[in-house]
Design a protein that fits this description.
The structure is a single chain. This protein is an alpha/beta fold and about 350 residues long. The protein folds into four domains: about 150 residues, TIM Barrel (Alpha-Beta Barrel), CATH 3.20.20; about 40 residues, no CATH class; about 60 residues; about 90 residues. About 45% of the residues lie in helices and about 10% in strands. The strands form four sheets. A four-stranded parallel beta sheet has the order 1-4-5-6. A two-stranded antiparallel sheet has the order 2-3. Strand 4, helix 3 and strand 5 form a beta-alpha-beta unit. This is Radical SAM domain protein. GO terms for molecular function: catalytic activity; iron-sulfur cluster binding; metal ion binding. Keywords: Iron, Iron-sulfur, Metal-binding.
């Protein structure tokens, strides 16, 4: 089975304990290349400069990573090729990096590809390394010795662009960075700080849903379905409910509707049934909480607050209840008793 992640041997191991060679061949044309010399010795009929991704490389890497063996390991790209060869599609490199990061492994890149590597900067984090191979500082000399590699000037510029320090102060809720103002990393850091300010001053979807639920709880809601989403709300809260539905509908993918219940015997019976079911469910939850010794103090407090809220809101339904009024009032008394037990339990926790 093809296993592209391997342990370098002899002197190569000083660079990295693990490595992957993504491509067969390299077209940078370096006259001193040891990989080309070895290739030409064993495969004299094949052109080393005819670069191709190794067949099934991304799938093979993903398969080898699946066991979790390489989590937190740093893997080098590449030894016998460059991860960013010239004039070919290098998407296999990006896909290999994505597979490594998804598995929890880290990436160590060594390249002469210069600007071609920029595309993948957004995949790297503080656990990864990006390096360049530099054999001379003269662009003219490099043109003779490494004719199709990026120039030393370009490589050095790319390395500078890959270097930045981004600092998040959670206590002060500030983000700062250090980077070369002329580099691409400066632009990335500026965008990161801009997005941080957006995040800091706006609520995400989960926060908005929690906010809506908190507001809804003040309107004495009775769930129509056990999973929620549809509720009966007493007419006394008509104005507040209108504001809440308008708020929900203001979001691009949000919606909220307020539909008046028809004043009929059938509708009143439906409301009465749902109020009774809600009280029964809450009583069962309170009884279970009283018997469960593993509940945390915060969870007990949550159940107590919910019970108190429902007991307080019951008066908003008394005027329309008839057939099950005595039964529901008895259930309210039982819930009050359960709350007393829960409060004593929470005090002992």
């Amino acid at each position: 089975m093809f296993r592209p992640i391997y342990e370098p041997r002899t002197r190569a191991k000083e660079y990295s304990d693990l490595a992957i060679n993504i491509y067969n061949g390299c077209n940078h044309g370096c006259w001193y290349c040891y990989a080309r010399k070895i290739h030409d010795r064993y495969k004299p009929t094949e052109n080393f400069a005819d670069v191709k991704p190794r067949e099934g490389i991304v799938e093979a890497v993903t398969r080898q990573l699946s066991g979790g063996k390489y989590k937190d390991k740093k893997i080098m790209l590449c030894f016998t090729c460059d991860p960013y060869p010239a004039n070919i599609d290098t998407m296999p490199t990006r896909e290999v990096i994505m597979a490594l990061k998804a598995s929890g492994a880290h990436v160590q890149i060594l390249t002469k590809g210069g600007d071609r590597a920029r595309r993948d900067f957004n995949l790297l984090d503080a656990n990864d390394s990006f390096g360049i191979t530099l054999t001379c500082s003269s662009d003219e000399t490099a043109q003779e010795e490494e004719p199709f590699a990026a120039s030393p000037t370009e490589r050095i510029r790319t390395l500078k662009d890959a270097t930045a320090v981004l600092t998040l102060d959670q206590k002060a809720e500030t983000m700062s960075f250090t980077a070369d103002p002329s580099s691409y990393s400066w632009e990335l850091c500026q965008e990161a700080t801009r997005l941080f300010e957006v995040f800091k001053n706006h609520h995400n979807g989960q926060a908005v849903r929690s906010m809506v639920q908190s507001i809804l709880k003040t309107l004495s809601p009775t769930p129509v379905r056990p999973s929620g989403g549809v509720y009966f709300v007493p007419a006394a809260y008509d104005e507040e409910l209108q504001k809440l539905t308008s708020f929900c509908s203001a979001f691009p993918k949000g919606e909220g509707f307020k539909i008046q219940v028809v004043n009929s015997a059938e509708s009143l019976k439906m409301v009465e049934t749902k109020v009774s079911d809600h009280l029964e469910s809450l009583y069962g939850q309170s009884q279970h909480a009283a018997a469960d010794g593993s509940l945390s103090k915060s969870k007990l407090a949550e159940i107590i607050d919910e019970a108190k809220r429902v007991i307080s809101g019951y008066k908003n339904y008394e005027g329309i209840l008839s057939q099950k009024k005595d039964e529901m009032e008895a259930r309210i008394l039982l819930i009050r008793d359960s709350v007393t037990i829960l409060m004593e339990k929470a005090g002992d926790t």
